[in-house]
């Protein structure tokens, strides 16, 4: 029986991190690899948006490398080590737990109930009582605010949004309030603000390229 490529990757990473392997790989830490995880994730998004199938395969490999790299680093922790097997076991267990309609034959009415069940199970597992529990504060500001609106809605917390006009003085506080209001407006109408902003950015890039090609400014 041929060896699994995933197991082969485990062995490659172990070789790189072990004595006689690669000194650069051996020196890396969870902290030093953060920038690479972010870069590879954004590069995968670019590949999706340009429908680059070869690029998607390559960038997914780079993201997978980060998972295996961090897991191999974790094996060397002096008091709380874990391996890629532990990581895989935990996520498999989580998927089974969060999908009772699949693994426990729980009857659901549709996708919305599936999402509600997921959130309820997640809150119960993690002992969450606040709308902000578990929100990743290190994520970019726009998706962070969007997540806050989402959580507030799920937890029944009504957020007050300050109104604004374009004539108001532009300062950090006013701009922050205006952005939060726009994100709330998008959320209330079922529009993903990140996707909307990225789509607008693509339109702006296309406009700039068209003007450059035509020689107009």
Write down the overall mean pLDDT. 87
Q: State the secondary-structure class.
A: mainly alpha
Counting DSSP H or I runs of 4 or more residues, the number of helices is: 10
Q: What is the number of strand segments? A: 0
Cα Rg = 23 Å
Order of helices and strands: HHHHHHHHHH
Tally of domains: 3
Largest sheet: none
Q: Tell me roughly what share of residues is in helical segments.
A: 55-70%
Shape: globular
Quaternary class:
single chain
Unreliable stretches covering 5 or more consecutive residues = none
Query: What fraction strand?
Result: under 5%
Amino-to-carboxy terminus distance:
63 Å
Structure description:
- By secondary structure, this protein is mainly α.
- It has three domains: 5-82, Helix Hairpins; 91-127; 132-214, no CATH class.
- The protein has ten helices and no strands.
- It has helices at 5-17, 23-27, 34-49, 53-75, 84-98, 100-103, 111-126, 141-154, 172-188, 193-214.
- It is globular and about 65 Å long.
- The model has no long low-confidence stretch (mean pLDDT 87).
- This is XTP/dITP diphosphohydrolase.
- InterPro entries: MazG-like_dom, NTP-PPase_MazG-like_N, NTP_PyrPHydrolase_MazG.
- Residues 28-103 form the NTP pyrophosphohydrolase MazG-like domain.
């Amino acid at each position: 029986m041929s060896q699994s490529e995933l197991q082969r990757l485990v062995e490659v990473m172990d070789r790189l991190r072990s004595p006689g392997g690669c000194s650069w790989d051996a020196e890396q830490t969870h902290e030093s690899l953060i920038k690479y995880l972010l870069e590879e994730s954004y590069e995968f998004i670019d590949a999706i948006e340009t429908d680059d199938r070869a690029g998607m395969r390559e960038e997914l490999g780079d993201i997978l490398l980060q998972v295996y790299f961090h897991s191999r680093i974790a094996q060397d922790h002096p008091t709380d080590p874990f391996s890629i097997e532990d990581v895989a076991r935990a996520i498999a267990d989580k998927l089974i737990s969060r999908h009772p309609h699949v693994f426990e034959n729980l009857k659901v009415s549709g996708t919305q109930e599936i999402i509600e069940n997921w959130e309820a199970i997640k809150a119960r597992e993690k002992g969450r009582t606040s709308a902000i529990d578990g929100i990743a504060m290190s994520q970019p500001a726009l998706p962070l605010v969007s997540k806050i609106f989402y959580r507030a809605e799920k937890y029944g917390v009504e957020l007050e949004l300050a109104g604004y006009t374009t004539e108001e003085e532009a300062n950090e506080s006013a701009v922050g309030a205006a952005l939060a209001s726009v994100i709330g407006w998008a959320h209330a109408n079922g529009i993903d603000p990140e996707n909307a902003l990225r789509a607008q950015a693509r339109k702006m890039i296309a406009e700039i390229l068209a003007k450059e090609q035509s020689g107009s400014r």
